[in-house]
Amino acid sequence: MVTPRRVKFTDLKFEYLPDNVLRARVELQWKGKTYHGTADTEWLEHQELICCAKATCNALEAVTAESKAKFEYLKCEPVTAVGQTLAVVAVAIGSAVSHQYTIGVSQIKENPGDSAVRAVLSATNRRLSTLLE
Questions:
Q1: Separation CA 105–CA 37 (nearest Å)
Q2: pTM of this structure
Q3: φ, ψ dihedrals at 52, nearest 5°
Q4: Which residues are within 8 A (CB) of 123 and not within 5 positions of it... i.e. 6 or more apart?
Q5: Phi, psi angle pair for 28, to nearest 5°
Q6: Which DSSP helix (H) or strand (E) runs through 60?
Q7: pLDDT digits (tens, 9 = 90+) for 9-66
Q8: Is residue 68 part of a domain?
Q9: Is residue 3 part of a domain?
Q10: 67 pLDDT exceeds 60?
Q11: Number of domains in the chain
Q12: SS3 state of residue 51
């Protein structure tokens, strides 16, 4: 059986809570196991991107729990470049051995939240492969 090389994004759900709060719940899969991460933010313009990026970082910490890696959300914003709207994410990855600042990008199509999740995975996948070995 071939071992998967990347963490797979499988689901994203939103919940609108009282007091103008948005909750995102991201589901990732790695080697047949499912991992979740959640995050809450105040509901404002572009907060959906931020909430999803934070939830993805939390889910990645669950995936890498054995290595005790930390994924710190730094920034996520929509950017227009080459005629496309992109989700650009900055994430800091820390482990017992090193710290790294990474950037990920994903084109925003129908669902901006999905794009934020994919941008975080774009930023972290190379480093993830070494953390999960």
A1: 20
A2: 0.92
A3: -70, -40
A4: 89, 90, 91, 102, 103, 104
A5: -120, 155
A6: helix 47-63
A7: 999 999 999 999 999 999 999 999 999 999 999 988 779 999 999 999 999 999 998 8
A8: yes
A9: no
A10: yes
A11: 1
A12: helix
CATH number at residue 122: 3.30.160.270
Predicted confidence at residue 54, as pLDDT, reads 97
Separation of CA 122 from chain center: 9
Could you give the CA distance from residue 124 to residue 8 in angstroms, rounded to a whole number? 12
Tell me the residue type at 90: A
Under 8 Å between Cβ of 133 and 21: no
Residue 12: both structure tokens together = 């994203």
Nearest CA to 104 out of 33, 92, 94 is that of 92
Q: How many residues does the chain have?
A: 133
In this predicted model, what pLDDT tens digit does every residue of 77-108 receive, in sequence order? 999 999 999 999 999 998 767 789 999 999 99
Residue 30 lies in a domain: yes
Residues 129 and 113: their CA atoms lie apart, in Å, by 24
Residue 2 domain-assigned? Answer: no
- Residue 15: give the domain boundaries: 8-131
